[in-house]
Write a structure and sequence with these properties.
Oligomer: single chain
Shape: elongated
Largest sheet: 5 strands, mixed
Helix content: 25-40%
Number of strands: 16
Distance between the termini: 140 Å
Number of helices: 17
Low-confidence stretches: 80-85
Amino acid sequence: MIRTPLRPLARILRARETGENPDAIEAENLRLRHEQMRDNSRFQAEGRLLVLSVFFFCAFAVVGARMGLLAASEAEEPRAQVLGADILAQRADITDRNGRILATNLYTHSLYAQVPDMVDKPKAARELAQIFPDLDEKKLLEDFTGKRKFLWIRKKLSPEQKQAVHDIGDPGLLFGPREMRLYPNGKLAAHILGGASFGREGVHSAEVIGVAGVEKAFDDYLRDPANGGKPLQLSIDLSVQSAMRQVLYGGMKLMNAKGAAAILMNIHTGEIVAMASLPDFDPNDRPRPALSGDPADSPLFNRAVQGVYELGSTFKIFTAAQSMELGMNGPLSMVDANAPMRWGKFTIREYDNKNYGPKLSVTDVIVESSNVGTAKMAMEIGGARQKDFLRTLGFLDPTPVELVEAPGAKPLYPSNWSEITTITASYGHGIAASPLHLAAGYSSLLNGGTLVKPTLLKRENVAPGPRIVSKKTSAAARDMLRQVVVRGTASFGKVPGYQVGGKTGTANKPKHTGGYYQDKNVNTFAAIFPASDPEYTLIVTMDEASDNSSDKPRRTAGWTAVPVAAEVIRRTAPLLGLRPIIEKVTVPAVTLTSN
């Protein structure tokens, strides 16, 4: 800064020449200097005041915004800072293959009591018992007047219940935020979804954990914040699932069955489009596991996956296919089917003591469902090769489907695979597997001969699996199953336009004490459609079904499971986008005559 001198020499000399007083020049310069200093000081003060004003404005704006946010949010009790991980309550949705919600979260509240803060305990106990009829007023009052300082009253509240508790007005009754799992479709796909419950719980949050089904199998994925809430997309189609369950439920009642199961699978990818087990349950109110009796009688039991049954004559197509694949027989080859057949002390008979022999073609062995013809082919194949073939198809190991219940459903078969086991296993006896095993086995054999594994996840661009049989063998097996529906034991399985092919299986239920019931069966129909170029495999299994529409009860699969499966196909095929196939009709020749 350059300061102007108070007595500049040039002006002093000029003033002396003109007779002016040099002191006046000094006084004037001093005045100007003081005025400049004053102006500078004023500018500095004004700048400081402006900065302080901006600072205070921002501070009050932040405080005001925070107060507004607190006023708009729901009040909650203060909590002390403690060590430990936060409870993660958020859980991703589960959707069907088209994005429709199967499981989601619902924001609700829990109710608890801080007993020392309660004002009128008898009134609170009385009114809570009126709001929640399952609570006992006397027990509540004992808890309120005892030594307990904290008491859970309700883990989940509806909005109406919350308002009713709020109207009691007791400061010791407090609400905590909760997220609960909601299944908007009720019982639909209950065994697939499984259910969820609360894990670790706090006053202000609770973790939601899976307890069964895909909820438990994919628990880590559904709870992982790194997924950003991306839903878990399943392979099932909600519309197809609903239609199949409705038909299966009606069929179970109509056929007087104890239970039923059905699986609809994409024959090329192994995707389960629909799967139902009856009786079922509502996962919104999942029942407790039965502590006594047969676990299979519980609605929690998944008959499609956990049910391990002898599936009867549905296994015969595997024997015929292996025989053709090994070059031992062709579809028209004649095999010995003269019944009964004796092996040591055992006698192999046909159903109702019939005799389809002495010779049958391999195709007619499947069409007529000949035990003896199938047994003769199996003996020619040999036990070692038969066992290896069934293992390749997945019948000797639990299914790899994404359910926590699946690993426990192990197939049952003798540890010593003797020749009699080879005979009985050829027609589905002496070896027990689940309907899901059967669906995967039929898909692998009949889709062109490549292995598929069942899955509940939607798949895109699935590469073919390892080859099981040749395309020629697969096509021949499909033709045989088509003939079973056209002229064999599954004639009630015809669905115009969809060329159904399939095989029936009727097996007596084993007794817990050994032996078999003569009046209790497990009936199964394994179907593919359209048989000329199959897209889907359908398995329908019914437990202790009986058609009582005639004088004598009819308990075979042809009378019970087959009509139900046909109705399932009739209802679901259009939903799957399958257009009916117009089959050629042979018109008999007409001869013109004249009178």
